[in-house]
Give the backbone structure.
Amino acid sequence: MAKPGHSWSRSPAGKEEEEEEEGEDPLDARIARTGCLEQHRELQECMEQHRDWRHCQAQLRAFGACMARREQRERGQSRAHPAQ
């Protein structure tokens, strides 16, 4: 049975391994392309440990700052190479 607050349950034996072989989580893949995967994982670990985002402010700020730097880089590149 799933833990309270979760709407999912564990996959049957073997099914989980098949999914891992098929590819990684699409959200993790998107975050990995940003270059902020490490900060995201640290935030996830903190949330898992504390179960309260207020205890994870340092990790939250680090992830937010990384994403903001990425956004600034993208804006700078789009200005240097405007779409035609």
